[in-house]
Structure formats: structure tokens, C-alpha cells
Amino acid sequence: MSPIARHLVQMTQRIRDTTKRSNTLKLIEEATKKPDLAHFTSAILKNPSHTSHSDPTPHATALLATDDQAKNNKSQAVHIYHDENHNYIGHTLYEERDNKTSDG
Fold it and tell me: Could you name the domain of life of the organism this protein comes from (predicted)?
């Protein structure tokens, strides 16, 4: 399948910095070209580049869903890792979960 195009990514927050927004959307597009993510058809951006106590490597967080998952109000979180120039370097896909009202 094709990667999820930038204009199809649902945003949960306004990113006023156009460079940061573009870099984040590029990461989602690049990640969904990978074979294990290529079957997803929708994406919700949860957080642009950040680190956390549980994952200190810089990453963006998105929720990905297939058509069936979206119909059943489910998704899978993915951390999309990048280098200092915001180039894709890898990802971690998490288990399917029910969507929360705060997800979008």
C-alpha cells in the first residue's frame, strides 16, 4: 500500500512552527512506507518530536489504524525515531488498543 500522505494525517494539536510540522509529517509519511506499517490507512499525530521517561530517544508519536481498526475505534501507537536532522531512523509499533476520547 501507499504511505499515508501528509494531508491525510489528523492533527490533535496545532503546530504553529511550519518546519516542525513539516518534519513531523515527513516522519509519518516515511515510516508508513516500511513493510510492517504499510497496511495502515489512517494516522493521528499525538505528539511531535519529544522524549519521555519511558523512551528517551527523540521521537514523534502517532496512532495508526487500518480500515477495520478505525471502524472498531481501535488503533496502534507508534514511536517514530529520527536523527538530529529529523530524518527517519526507525520505529516501534505498540499493541492494538481502544481509542480514548482524548485521542482526537
Answer: Eukaryota
- Cell numbers linked to 92: 516501534
Distance of CA 17 to the CA centre of its chain: 18
pLDDT one-digit tens code per residue, 19-74: 999 999 999 999 999 999 999 999 999 999 999 999 999 999 999 999 999 999 99
- Torsion sign across C-alpha atoms 103, 28, 36, 42: positive
Distance CA 73, CA 59 (A): 24
Q: Which of 75, 98, 76, 82 is nearest to 31 (CA)?
A: 82
CB atoms within 10 A of CB 69: 19
